[in-house]
Each structure stands twice: as C-alpha cells, then as structure tokens.
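Possible regression after last week's pipeline update?

I re-ran a chain I had predicted before the update to compare outputs. Posting the input and the new output here so someone can diff against the archived version. Not blocking, just want to make sure nothing changed silently.
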Amino acid sequence: MPKQCPDGNQERGEDRSERAHRSRESERPSRHEITEADREGGPGHTVLLALALAIPAVKVAYTLGGGGAATDALMGMGPGNWWDVLLGMVLTTPLPGCVLGVVASRVVFALFAARGAVPRGNHPAARLRRAGLTVLNPVATGVVACFIGPWWGLGTAVAAYLLRRGVVIEYRTGRRGRRDHDPHFAPPGWQRRLATGEQVVALTLSVVVLPVLGVVSALDGQAWTSVVRCEVTDGTRTRAARLIELQRQGNGVVGWNLDRGEVSNGVGCTGLESRTVREPWWRA
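New output (post-update):
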C-alpha cells in the first residue's frame, strides 16, 4: 500500500503548536527565578522593616514634644537602645503587639519555606518536622504575648498558627513555588478558596491594620517605658521631678525630665502608675 503524504495543513498546525509550546517554555520563569522571587518576600517584609525604623522615632518625637527633644532622649538612651522603644510599645499596647507578633511569625515562616527550610513530602518524618516548624513559632509568639495577658497570648498563638498553615496551603495550591507555573496542576477548589482567604487576611493585617495600630500607638501620648518620680539635683538645689526612664545608672536612673525638658540624673526614684505624658494626637 503506498504511503500517504502528510497533509500540509496538519504539518503547519503541528509546527505552530510546537512553536507556541517553546514560546510558553521560554516565557515561563526558571526555577532559580521562582526561588529568588519567593525569597524577596512581599509587603509584610517591607512593612515590618518600615515600622521597626520609623515608629520608634515617631513615638519618641511626639511623646516628648519635638524632634530636638527626641534627639536628646535617644542620645541619652544610646543608639543600642533604639529597640527598647519598640519593645516597650509592644509590651504596653496589647493589640499592636499581638498583631506584630502574628505578622512577624508568618513572614519568618514564609521566608524559611522559600529557602527550603521546611521539609516536603509525605514521609512520616517530613510530616512531623513540618508540623513542628508550623507549630513551634506560634507557640513561642503566644508565650511572649502572655506577658500582656493569657487571653492575648492564646489569641496570638492561634492566629499565628492559622496564618502559617495558610502558607503551607499556598504551596499546595501553587500560589507559591513552582506549581504556580504548571498549567496541568489543578488543586481542589476549597484549597484555592482557603489560600485566597489567607492571603487577603495576611495582606490586610500587614499593610493596613498593623501600620494603623502602630501610628495610633506612637501618637497616644503614653510613655514607652516607666515614668518615675526622682530627686534631681540642679546646681545646688534638689527638687522632685517626673522622669521617663531611659536607662538605669548606679543607684539611680538617667531619664527625660518632663518638667525641664532635658536629660537628667535622678536618685531615690519611685514608680508612677500613670504613663500619660501628653494628650493623644487626636485630642490635641
């Protein structure tokens, strides 16, 4: 039987299909590019860095009443104590501190997952390690939040765990990793909905709720640390004054003198219950 000549239209169709396939392959990001995109992070990384740098400065400047006073106070504390302001805000204002812990927990887990620190596969050992990495950090975050209150700690741990589980679901549904570029991968609909909901919640907490709470906490007129009443020597006179404690030194403290607007050394200090220094920004 004579061989049939291939149809010209069929050959052209196959050529077009092959060229389109090669074009899609060339446009598809490489594994290195995908990994690097995951490692670069998202809005959560940027917001956390911006808050860590800006919010303490805003807190000190507004509480003390000006940029010059903030500079003197920060010099009195020392540059190494910059984080003391942020830590004080976290421990004295429950809601911003808990939201910060939840967002930081998710960001750290997502970064480690992008770097391959979270084991994959269905092997029992891999599942156990993955469960441990998913649970350990939320538990630690909840323990820290327990310094604010037990219910704050429990709520923080649960929220952090749910968002970390959301990162795992993002990988399973292809929102992260290589499956995002696999046209043949079709995850279940309920997993896609969960991944979408988790991303919306995480994005809202990171770029809306956390910045707003941080700014509100910075402008509430409350001191970020203890306010004490001390004996302050001014030349030959000794008088009582209220100080915002910046650091302890010997048998006294170095603090911001609220009465004189300067850094002073105080001795014989007693703590005050109220940390209110001035009216909140929205009442001033």
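Follow-up from reviewer: compared with the archived run. Confidence is low (pLDDT under 50) at residues 20-38. Marking as no regression found.
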